[in-house]
Amino acid sequence: MIMLEGAKATTETVDALRTGAAAMKAMQKATNIDDVDKTMDEINEQTENMKQIQEALSTPIGAAADFDEDELEAELEELEGAELEEQLLQPATTAPAAPVQVPAGRQPARPVPQRRTAEEDELAALQAEMAL
Questions:
Q1: What is the pTM of this model?
Q2: Region Disordered: start and end of each range (predicted)?
């Protein structure tokens, strides 16, 4: 019984392979190597034509055609060098500002009272009268 099932599976496999081979043969009749080579040659030719068109379009015209690329590069390098030299000659940082406060060890323990002027005395008296 097992042998019979194995033989049937083998026969089905061989039939499937024959069907696949026939399908591949039919597809290859529709497309042969000469057609593929011809198509690839046409694609390469069109690609080359596009490269030539793009090259022609990228060629400078008018005033832009008069510029020399090497000369422009040299001028740019010269300008960048001058700018770098100017930056290097500038001081890197400014000096820190002097401290505004006196160090804690030198301050008096309690603030020295300031004397009030006559005007301040009058103002204090008026505020006291008004109960402010």
A1: 0.34
A2: 91-120
